[in-house]
Amino acid sequence: MFRTVLVRANSALKSSINVTKPALALGSSRHMSKESTETDEEFDNRYEAYFNRADIDGWEIRRGMNDLCGMDLVPEPKIVIAAMKACRRVNDHSLAVRFIEAIKDKCGGKVNEIYPYIVQEIKPTLVELGISTPEELGYDKPELALENINDD
User: What domain range is 85 assigned to?
Assistant: First the structure.
């Protein structure tokens, strides 16, 4: 009951005092640009250096991969190779396979053109590190798909 009285008193006090905040109105501005000042080569080098860090851990690898997956691009093979090596350094095979799956998904409608090129470029690294592709693991086919009884 005491709480209700305090809430009503506070509300009445606020409505009786008309406080304007001109400092907030004057200080709010956003400086944004649609132009990127980073070239494609600088972008690739930045992410390659990020994944090549010796002290990178699993969380940071996931963060970098998540950032890449959130962008409207398919990462270059050299970035994918650096990410695969980072996954091997932290001994996370499943993360490497999931990243390859995400890359396949990022290819969109051009999956038959882009994804085979990516796999061809990273295949020697995958063999060297002992990382399987999703197709080698059978992840490209449904595991528990049931036969449709209506298909006679």
Answer: 40-129
Name the phi and psi angles at 16, rounded to 5. Answer: -80, -20
Radius of gyration of the chain (CA): 26
Q: Model pTM? A: 0.70
- What gap in Å lies between CA 110 and CA 128, rounded to an integer? 28
- Render pLDDT for 84-134 as a digit per residue (tens, 0 to 9): 999 999 999 999 999 999 999 999 899 999 999 999 999 999 999 999 999
Long-range contacts at 6-14 (CB < 8 A, ≥ 24 apart): none
> Does residue 25 have a pLDDT over 50?
no
Task: Give the distance from CA 42 to its chain's centroid.
Answer: 19
Alpha-carbon span 109 to 29, nearest angstrom:
39
Task: State how far the Cα of 58 lies from the Cα of 72, in Å rounded to an integer.
Answer: 23
User: Do the domain assignments include residue 60?
Assistant: yes
